[in-house]
Amino acid sequence: MKVKMRPRFGSGLFYSFGWKKNLLAIAAGLLCYFLLGLLSDLYSNSRILSELDISSAGLPFIGFLFGIWGVIGTALGYFLTLLKEFLALSRPFTPAEFFSAFAWVIPMLTYTALPSLLWYSIHLKGERKVSYPRMDTAAHVIKYYLIMLATLVIFIITYLPLYHFDPSRDYVLMMTVFFTQCLDIALIVGMPLIILYSVIRNRTITINERLVLAFLCIGVVASLLAAYLVYNTAQRLDPSLFEDYERLMATEDWSNSDMSALERYDLFWNWYMVALALVQNILLVIEILFMRRIEKKITRPLIHLSDALGNYADQKDGGLNREALKKECHPYRYGYGEVSSLTQTCIHMADDIDNYTEELRQVTAEKERIGTELDVASNIQRDMLPRIFPPFPDRCEIDIYASMKPAKEVGGDFYDYYFIDQDHLALTIADVSGKGVPAALFMVISKTLLQNHAMSGGSPKEILTYVNHQLCQNNDSLMFCTVWFGILDLRSGTLTAANAGHEYPAVRKASGEYQLMVNRHDPPLGIRDGLRFGEYEITLSPGDCIFEYTDGVTEAVNNSMDQFEEENMLATLNAEPDADPKTVIEKMHTAITQFAEDATQYDDITMLCVKYLGSGKAKESGLRAHLIVPAHVDRLDEVTGFLEEQLENADCSPDDIFTITLAAEEIFVNIAHYAYDGGEGEAEIKFSFDNDTRIAEIVFSDNGIPFDPTSRPTPDISQEAGKRPVGGLGIHIVKQMMDGVHYQYLGGKNMLAFQKKI
Amino acid sequence: MTLNNQLEDTTLTMAIEGRIDTQTAPELEAAIKESIEGVSCLILDFAQVGYISSAGLRTVLTAQNWMDAKGGTMTIRNAGKNIVKVFKVTGFDTFLTLE
Question: How far is A730 from chain B (nearest CA, A)?
Answer without folding.
Answer: 5
